[in-house]
Amino acid sequence: MPILQRKRDYARLIIIVSGVLPLILAIFFTALDARHTVHQQQVSAANTLLSQAEKMSDSAWDMITSLTPVSESALQRLGTLNAYFRAIGKLEYDQIACSSAYGLNSGSLVEMMMRDVPVTGKAWWSLSIAGTYAVPNRPAVLFVRELPGGEGFWAVIDGQYLIDFMRAISSARGYHLSMQFSGGAPIAHGSAQPPAQNWFEPLVYQTSSQRYPLSVTVVAPPGELITAWRQVLFIFLPMAAIFSILLMILTSNWLQRRISWRDEIRRAIAAGQFRAHYQLVYDNRLQRRRSAIALDHAGWQWRAAGHFYRRCRSRRDDCAADPSSARSDCGGCARLAGACTFPSGD
């Protein structure tokens, strides 16, 4: 394939790349921006849920702190007047001595929790549980304060309040929200594992409270990322298309100058790749050389393609060479070129 044709093929490829590259960059960076936007929304949702859970925990610990040995009716009144609470009561060792839900009916803390009591080594601890003895199918959060002498107080917050709050947060975006106290049973709302869509995986964000042993997980479905990416893409894609067209035009103009014959010859002359061959003109009447003319063969030494010659038409049409001299050997003329001078009067 001729060198010039090969260069033109490369030029077409470069023009295509220059047009496609801005579009690819626009798609890539808008996808990153959409991912960042969804992440910020997840952070906001998690912080809102953490704030509400910390507020409910503050209410539970305030309730437990304010409890003193009171009667059954007093406990029932306190449990009724305070929001969030399913039950509050008093402990004697691991036995429930009195509660707002069970009255004076004794029972163990294990039976009420429907699981073993965790070993925390702390006097104040909390745990999310899958259910209680009275409401086994609805999660709850248990708060316990153990006092010296085997006594203590406890409070149970109904997990339905947290589930309703999660539903309000995730209703607009379809998040899966999950919360755990001290690594206990999860209190969750939404699809447990959103399926992947068109190579987009669910985005998972997890954080924890600085005040309580409380962690929150927010899972954004792939559709949320696709929606955010589409919105950003529709904003920046027209600008990327305009930039792509301008870049193709600029690249095409630059390449036309780079691969044109005029620029090739100009660069060859600047690099000293041309060799001119001259022929003496001898005046028989005066018996001396009169001048020298350039032959219609010019040697072009193209380093990129080896040594070869291109035929070039001389611009010295006004000079007529002797037919016998025109057929002379170019090498001999080249050897004589060093002794030639342009029109000489010698």
Concise synopsis of the structure shown:
This protein is an alpha+beta fold. 44% of the residues lie in helices and 25% in strands. It has a 6-stranded antiparallel beta sheet with strand order 3-2-1-6-5-4. Strands 8-7-10-9 form a 4-stranded antiparallel beta sheet. Strands 11-12-13 form a 3-stranded antiparallel beta sheet.
Describe, in plain words, how this protein is organized in 3D.
- This protein is an alpha+beta fold.
- The protein is 44% helix and 25% strand.
- Strands 3-2-1-6-5-4 form a six-stranded antiparallel beta sheet. The chain has a four-stranded antiparallel beta sheet with strand order 8-7-10-9.
- A hairpin with a 5-residue loop joins strand 9 and strand 10 (214-220).
- The chain is rod-shaped and about 145 Å long.
- Mean pLDDT is 78; it is low at 303-346.
Largest beta-sheet characterization: 6 strands, antiparallel
Give the uncertain stretches in residue-range form. 303-346
Structural class from helices and strands?
alpha+beta
What oligomeric state best describes the polypeptide chains here? single chain
Number of DSSP strands?
Answer: 13
Order of helices and strands: HHEEEHEEEHEEEEHHEEEHH
Residues in β-strands, percent: 15-25%
Number of helices, where a helix is a run of at least 4 consecutive DSSP H or I residues: 8
Give the spatial strand order of the biggest sheet. Answer: 3-2-1-6-5-4
